[in-house]
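Raw record, unedited: Branched-chain-amino-acid aminotransferase
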Amino acid sequence: MTEYIYIDGRFYDKENARISVFDHGLLYGDGVFEGIRAYNGRVFKLDEHVDRLYDGAKAIMLTPTLSKDEMKQAILETLRKNELKDAYIRPIITRGMGDLGLDPRKCAKSSVIIIAVTWGAMYGDLYEKGLTAVSVSVRRNASEALPTNIKSLNYLNNILAKIEANEKGGDEAIIFDVRGNVAEGSGDNIFVIKGGKIYTPFIQQNLNGITRASVLELCDKYRIPLVEQNLGYFDLYTADEVFVTGTAAEIGPITKIDGRIIGDGKPGPITRKLMKAYTELTKTTGTPIY
Ligand code: PMP
């Protein structure tokens, strides 16, 4: 089937979906993006994703050509055009075409791109077996340099972490911040469980994950105590359970970190309970596509 890509109000088939080589999104990573999933004919947490996208755009003084409502409609239209009910959706707002200088004032008009594809469970059989994580030497961009809550097109920091994890044989990287606290994974947030309590780093050290927020809601619902606090290596190595959360990854249990077996080496009971509850939530809530 032809895949249709939305670019600035028109649909193009995949081969003809192109943007300018002078787009500052390409030249400088100047832009913002989102990763959204649709389940069972509904887009999960659409408002939250579009809010985060537009907050990021505002923070970098990027004016989108679409209102938030128009963006939501364009996302739904892209799914309909591609006849998708279950999908991974990638909206992108780039600074647009400029010259080879950095100055964004040279970019007359920003661009919107929306890609929607079929993408099943990211970690395959590892949801049953558990993921192997490795801590990496590269530090999370300090939020003083680039606020971690802007989901910007500049993902080189995360890619460096992924490269290091690949080299060390890990399924996912654990990135620390410049102060030595656990920040997050290369594309997901992290949670540690010890003695029936869940711990997760403050959002100042990572992307304010929408899946993370869903987990916080679920913990509230199931009365599982959750604490936001700084975490270090010791907390990871001695945890009963560890898991990561993200739109693409969903909830991924981690059963080995830097060679240390976590708990009994299998996804633990609280993680499993949250995985089940999250699946249920994604299948029963969201904005209808059709
Ligand atoms: N951290 C990073 C660096 C990410 O790229 C992502 C994925 N968007 C997340 C965390 C998880 O965020 P969300 O749950 O909103 O997908």
